[in-house]
User: What shape does this take?
Amino acid sequence: MKTFFLIATMLVLMTGCSKDSASGFTTHLPPETQTGANTFGVTIKGKVYVPRDPTGNGIYPSSKGMSLWRATDYSWYEIEVKDGASAVGFNMIIHIDHLASLGKLLLSQSNFHSEYDSGLFTHIYFKIWDATISNYTYYGSIANQGEINVTRLDSGLFSGNFKGKFVRYDNPNDFITITDGRFDINGFTLPNAVFP
Assistant: This one.
C-alpha cells in the first residue's frame, strides 16, 4: 500500500512540470492568479513553457522573456512570450484586438503576423521545436475554436487564461490543442521583471 501512495505522489508531483535536459531547468505551470504576478504558463505536447529571458548575445540580447505591447491608439494589445534560455526555445504571440472589458474573446484564424500587420482580430500563434524535423514549426489559432478569457483588467493588471485548437502553418492536417494557458501581468512592473 505504501508503494501505491509513493507512486501516486510522484505522479502528482511530476504532473504540470517539465525539465530542459540541456540546462537542468525544471519548469512548473504557475498558478492562475489575478494579482499582477508577471507569470505566464502553457502546456504544449506535454511540455510546460514559461517566459525566460534570452541568454548570451543572440540577435536580440535586450529582449525579455515576456513583454506587453500596445498600439498607440490602444486598438490592440499583444503579449509576447519567449523562452530564450533553454536549448530549443519557444515564442508565442497573443494578439488581442479592441480589448475593452472582462470576458471571453473568440480566437480568429491566425495570419502569423504581429503588431500592426496582425489584422483587426484576436488570435494566437507560436513556434516550438519539432525534433522529428530538427527545426521549428509554427502553429496558429483556428477561427472559433479557441478563446481568451480576460479575468482582470484594471489598475495596470491584465490577467486571464486561454485555450484552443491550433493548426500548423505548413501542414493543415497537424493540430495541437491547448487547454491550460494562463497569464497574470502587471503593466507597470513587467518591464523590470526578470525571467530566469
